[in-house]
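Troubleshooting: if your tokenizer reports a length mismatch, compare your output against this known-good record of 385 residues.
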Amino acid sequence: MNRLTTSQGGFDLARFPEHPRDPFRAWDAADEYLLRQLEGIDGAEPVDLSGAVVVVGDRWGALTTVLAGNRPVQITDSYLAQRATLANLARNGDDPDTVRLLSAGDTPPERIDVLLVRVPKSLALLEDQLHRLAPAVHAGTVVIGTGMVKEIHTSTLKLFERIIGPTRTSLAVKKARLIFCTPDPALARTPSPWPHRYDLPEGIGAVSGRTVVNHAGIFCAERLDIGTRFFLNHLPERSGRDRIVDLGCGNGVVGTSAALANPEATVTFIDESYLAVASAEATFRANLGTDAVADFLVGDGMADVPPGSVDLVLNNPPFHSHQATTDATARTMFHGARTALRQGGELWVVGNRHLGYHTQLRRTFGNCTTVAGDPKFVVLRAVKR
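Known-good structure output:
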């Protein structure tokens, strides 16, 4: 936990889940730059926050916590960001009811007077968010985006310009930059292109030639990524009434493949992204029908899965948290999988060879075998003894 100091006071903030050895803060220079802009810097007038304030993409709730007195609406695609926000509000003595939490797929407020956008890593997610928010923005709305310099590109500015209105940027401060956008109510907009559908290639097992549905922001939303393709070619062949979890499901193609290969199995799709779980459900329904049985869960890994209740976990863990490279998410997933698996249950993992997941799996499970590998990827199997 670290303390963020602003003109409004000091705030104790942490990411979620909170790890004592986590070297990363719950905010960065881009958040600080935006907060100073709202307060009025370099002689500029402070931003009037008395109207309807919407904070989009607040990564760990720092912006929302500092602005809690203005009763903002927070919109995020991240379950963990929502949990971090609630924890940080409580940590600083704020009533969680002062903030309205919405997911990226929820209907946004009808009117927005101040729109604050933390630029996401995914340009597609930004595009979808701006399309969803544009009808609520009016000529007097203050629109400010923020991000680190490496996160803001010409394509980022063009999106604001095309969907909201004329756009300019600030000077860089501590490698952070602000985006100022003036809403143009007369702007003609094309409809959002999301969600996106495509057909899978042949030669990848049970899902060959099947349809995939991707909402914005999902990894490799316009094509099958090579790591997942490798995994699909080496999934375990099983039968019977297995309980299977597609952990970190993304668009759900791995869990859908498992369901197609074993119709007696029950598959649970889990991700911390609301749009990922929506994509997984759409992919599953497109290929198995509306009456097929499956569970779709937005959550913190396996935290909400009963211990000893699962036969097989399929996992392609992320190794980035926004711009930072970390194995913390993979470690959490592996530990959660071990708890959820019954005795004899298996965790199958695909990952880049250089990440060395076999070491962590041996620590967690006491065993790990290599199922398949090529120069870039490896599929690993660990069994709960």
